[in-house]
């Protein structure tokens, strides 16, 4: 293991990429500590410490993703989530709008144009989210005990006007654009996907603080560690799990040479939708409590609160729905059957054409059912287990499947990238059994 780690720094190109990635991640953490102009850092820090133990549902989850920027009112308050939202929107539009689907099939030129539109659409999303976030900062107050419990704003100006709002909105928008640029630099000159690395850095950066602030007994700490290890093992097992469909290619005789006739496998991932279903489900479930509270249905709003039974039931149903919805958008069995037929391939025992498409769709539905069941379990069971043990709200977010899925998926992708660099230089893989000579 240590020899494999040492091999990472023996390749000049890989060594430079690792150092560049670390430097960009350090720059990301520096931006997390730069406050928004007009906000008192001391007051917002005390307010964040006061509310650190509350379970904030989607708000707490977004704050963890952004590395704590929302609570700290920092330059990177919005994090990279606006860019992710724009990417998700265009991913859906590519499958729905024929013009965008045609453009995506034009190769690298079409992909560059869609990426440019995604970046441009990030700006209005940042402006809208930044406006709501900054108005929330302007309306928040903090009670200082030394001043007799007087309510003071977290801004330097007791009555912040339109100047503060415009400056703060432009600041957080510029912070998100800077993060988007840093992510692209990591992708081009670093190791791994830059956007994913920033998201994982935001989660990992807050984990020691959440664990240290919990002050758990030894028994609870042991149970919590065991649950965390089991969930991580389950995520790794399902993330790497595949259903391999055999595909036979017909023999082609050209002159004296015979081509084809080999059997390959079409791999279908068990968790084909990834982390998208739980993100969408969390986003939708954040709004019903606010709407029900506004119309006066406080009892129903309490039942829909984060971690309650009704919330858990809706979370499971929405996870199943979005898992099948996302797979239906991204997986086209008719087109896959058509491409297989044109390449001279067929599934043994299944006729080409429509029967092959129906066979692929049947397998995909069964695999998606297993993947959605796993997502629902790891998203709900840890939260229920944490509420039974009366754990802090922040730890329940870390125990949830969303954050663990993100961290484990990014870590596995990073290991695969490091393996590819090592194997190209005739080194053994970073982890035995991960590929190459290790396997």
Question: How would you characterize the overall build of this protein?
Answer:
The protein is mainly alpha-helical. It has 2 domains: 1-213, Preprotein translocase SecY subunit (Orthogonal Bundle), CATH 1.10.3370; 217-390, Orthogonal Bundle (Preprotein translocase SecY subunit). 68% of the residues lie in helices and 8% in strands. The protein is built from 19 helices and 7 strands. A hairpin with a 5-residue loop joins strand 1 (141-144) and strand 2. The protein is globular and about 85 Å long.
Order of helices and strands: HHHHHHHHEEHHHEEEEHHHHHEHHH
Tell me which CATH architecture of the largest domain applies here.
Orthogonal Bundle
Radius of gyration: 25 Å
Instruction: Write out the CATH superfamily name of the largest domain.
Output: SecY subunit domain
Top-tier CATH class of the largest domain: Mainly Alpha
The portion of residues assigned to helices is: 55-70%
């Amino acid at each position: 293991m240590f020899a494999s780690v040492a091999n990472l720094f023996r390749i000049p190109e890989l060594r430079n990429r690792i150092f560049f990635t670390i430097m960009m991640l350090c720059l990301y953490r520096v931006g997390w500590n730069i406050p928004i102009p007009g906000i008192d850092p001391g007051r917002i820090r005390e307010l964040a410490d006061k509310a650190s133990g509350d379970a904030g549902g989607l708000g707490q989850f977004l704050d963890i993703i952004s590395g704590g920027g929302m609570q700290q009112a920092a330059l990177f308050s919005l994090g990279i989530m606006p860019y992710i939202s724009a990417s998700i929107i265009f991913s859906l539009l590519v499958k729905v709008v024929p013009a965008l689907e045609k453009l995506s099939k034009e190769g690298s030129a079409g992909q560059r144009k869609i990426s440019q539109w995604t970046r441009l659409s990030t700006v209005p999303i940042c402006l809208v989210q930044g406006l709501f976030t900054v108005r929330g900062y302007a309306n928040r107050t903090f009670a200082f005990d030394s001043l007799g419990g007087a309510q003071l704003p977290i801004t330097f100006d007791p009555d912040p006007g339109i100047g503060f709002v415009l400056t703060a909105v432009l600041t957080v928008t510029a912070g998100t654009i800077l993060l988007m640029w840093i992510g692209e630099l990591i992708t081009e000159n670093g190791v791994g996907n830059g956007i994913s690395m920033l998201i994982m850095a935001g989660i990992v950066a807050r984990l020691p603080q959440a664990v240290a602030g919990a002050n758990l007994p030894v028994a609870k700490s042991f149970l919590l560690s065991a649950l965390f290890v089991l969930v991580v093992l389950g995520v790794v097992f399902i993330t790497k799990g595949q259903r391999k469909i055999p595909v036979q290619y017909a023999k082609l005789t050209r002159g004296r040479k015979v081509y084809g006739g080999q059997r390959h496998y079409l791999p279908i991932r068990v968790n084909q939708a990834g982390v998208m279903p739980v993100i969408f489900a969390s986003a939708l479930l954040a709004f019903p409590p606010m709407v029900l509270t506004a119309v006066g249905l406080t009892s129903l709003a309490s039942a829909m609160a984060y971690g309650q039974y009704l919330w858990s039931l809706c979370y499971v149903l929405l996870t199943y729905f979005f898992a099948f919805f996302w797979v239906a958008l991204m997986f086209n069995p008719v087109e896959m059957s058509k491409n297989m037929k044109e390449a001279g391939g067929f599934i043994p025992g299944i006729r080409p054409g429509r029967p092959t498409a129906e066979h692929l769709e049947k397998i995909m539905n069964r695999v998606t059912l297993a993947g959605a069941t796993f997502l629902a379990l790891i998203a709900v069971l840890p939260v229920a287990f944490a509420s039974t043990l009366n754990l802090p709200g922040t730890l329940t977010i870390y125990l949830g499947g969303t954050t663990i899925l993100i961290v484990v998926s990014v870590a596995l992708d990073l290991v695969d990238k490091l393996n590819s660099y090592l194997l190209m230089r005739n080194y053994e893989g970073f982890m035995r059994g991960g590929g190459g000579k290790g396997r």
